[in-house]
């Protein structure tokens, strides 16, 4: 099998010359996925609509994606949608954070469970306990803080923000999975 593949690759320049092509590049399907340098660190101080501190998010770059540790308080008990938003601004009611990061072309629809999605800002829901506290870690391959690697770069010219919503994200419906109002927001910055 390997000998047949090598023989076929050896014939590519001949076939290209006969077809009038200048060059042919063989695609190596065994190449490893794009990786980022690990260890870059960032943080976001979460604030509520009154501007009071509501927690923090710690971002740590992994080789294939971004780990986000979320510690929050003052939420209603239950599930809450969490998304990465495209603009690093958190003026209440946090619409200044813009929409989700979603720079692909064509733009992907919202939803981790959407057959056409997810968009780059989609994250799993987090759960607030009976006291309204969240301690969770989420991971995404669609965002990064390293200068190179997989996912959208969060340290672009206008930054980005992490937003916690009032309701759970159903991960399917548009535009934000029914997640509702923006309760807490944090501008993500290099640590």
TrEMBL record:
Name the InterPro entries on file: SOD-like_Cu/Zn_dom_sf, SOD_Cu/Zn_/chaperone, SOD_Cu_Zn_dom
Q: Any keyword Signal?
A: yes
Signal peptide start-end: 1-19
Pfam families, from UniProt?
A: Sod_Cu (PF00080)
Q: Which UniProt keywords are present, listed alphabetically?
A: Signal
Q: Where is the Superoxide dismutase copper/zinc binding domain?
A: 55-187
**Family affiliation:** Belongs to the Cu-Zn superoxide dismutase family.
- The name this protein carries in UniProt is Superoxide dismutase [Cu-Zn]
User: What is this organism's lineage?
Assistant: Bacteria, Pseudomonadati, Pseudomonadota, Alphaproteobacteria, Caulobacterales
């Amino acid at each position: 099998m390997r000998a047949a593949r090598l023989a076929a690759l050896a014939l590519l320049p001949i076939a290209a010359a006969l077809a009038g092509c200048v060059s042919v590049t063989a695609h190596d399907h065994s190449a490893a996925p794009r990786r980022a340098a690990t260890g870059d660190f960032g943080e976001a101080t979460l604030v509520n609509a009154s501007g009071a501190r509501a927690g923090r998010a710690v971002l740590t770059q992994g080789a294939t994606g971004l780990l986000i540790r979320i510690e929050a308080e003052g939420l209603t008990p239950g599930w809450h949608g969490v998304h990465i938003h495209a603009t690093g601004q958190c003026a209440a009611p946090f619409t200044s954070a813009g929409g989700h990061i979603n720079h692909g072309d064509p733009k992907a629809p919202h939803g981790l469970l959407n057959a056409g999605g997810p968009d780059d800002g989609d994250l799993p829901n987090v759960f607030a306990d009976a006291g309204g506290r969240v301690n969770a870690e989420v991971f995404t391959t669609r965002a990064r803080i390293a200068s190179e690697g997989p996912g959208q770069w969060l340290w672009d010219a206008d930054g980005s923000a992490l937003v916690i919503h009032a309701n759970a994200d159903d991960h399917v419906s548009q535009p934000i999975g029914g997640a509702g109002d923006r309760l807490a927001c944090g501008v993500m910055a290099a640590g």
